[in-house]
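Data availability (excerpt). The following record was deposited with the supplementary files.
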Amino acid sequence: MTGHAPRRVAVTGIGAVTPIGHGADGVWAGVLANRSAVRAIDRFDASPFPSRIAAAIDDFRPADHFDARRARRLDRFSALAVASARMAVEHAGLEDGHRPAPERTGVWIGSALGGVAFGEEQHAAYVERGVHGVSPTLATAVFGGAAASNVAIDLGMRGPAIGNANSCASGAVAIGQAFQAVRDGVVDAALAGGAEAPLAPLTFGAFAMIRVLSRRNDDPATASRPFDVGRDGFVMGEGAAMLVLEAWDAAERRGAPILGEILGFGASTDAHHLTAPLPSGEAAAAAITTALADAGVAAGAIGYVNAHASSTPLNEVAEARAIHLALGARHAREVPVSGTKGLYGHALGASGAIEAAITVMALCNGLLPGTCNLETPDPEVDLNVLRDATPATPGLALSTSFGFGGLNAALVIGRGT
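Predicted structure:
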């Protein structure tokens, strides 16, 4: 603590670049359309791999967002992050006259892989043309904090600029840490989220070779199928999402539309296995319980769960057990749950941020997303999984994220004004 009384933390802006749409409106339109963006990979030759499908973003060109020099200097990972951050700031109405002091504004961005795919590309250039074929931006593109640094530079934010690499929990961890910093008075505002650009041959192939990716190559649109008995692995995706978090009273003073509220954050580690979850779900449940305690709310107050739901058989059963342990068996069977990765695949470290943004918009719009491609629910998943979008106005929601290494994160999110 910094001596400040804990402050309420408002979400006032959302920016995103995803396979189903860009910006808050574009992503929400993609959720409502309920069509999967997964297709056959054409960005590189995927024929050597057992999985040959992904959720790619085909309509993002850095030149549409940056001047020519800036576009050349940003790899895809950082470009997705900076473009999303700009959208979030614009969406929040944070023009220069309304921005908090630069030294009181921070950046928190998570990514599982950072600029690894760009490093792979540059290694190929090195093998083909030697050292003179390598981009001079390589050294500053591949480190995990590159996105946070580039966003801070682009927007002139001089508070903490923190990058984390907590695998598929990274985006949620970034939002949780930024929430704590705003709540505790470390900063007055923050940009927080995740970015991921993993669609390169070796980077993608590393996951395909350990058999965690779906092999439904003949029907890509149905390959990512959260909670479905026929799921056979996750579908890799790319994307970025950023939230603007502000002290609630400051947002009210400037007349900002308050989209939602971050109320609690929890994290834990399975300490079990690098790729398989702890089967009991107890460590994941501890992250949820910590988030509820942080928010000061009872488990029964949660009215919606946006689940991690990666479309992998082991993980979703463990997640269901975690929800039962944390919320209680009766409430866990009743509370509406959806898994939205059927739409845009699994963007690794960006997923938690994309899903937090969708959760905010669901509460804001009074409509809970369905679960794309859910045909036959897995009987081992004893949850009230929504097949179709459902009108509802819960006051509180839970967003969960779980990743390789047994890294777990949970966010409690409330409705805005």
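Summary of structural features: Residues 226 and 311 are 4 Å apart (CA to CA).
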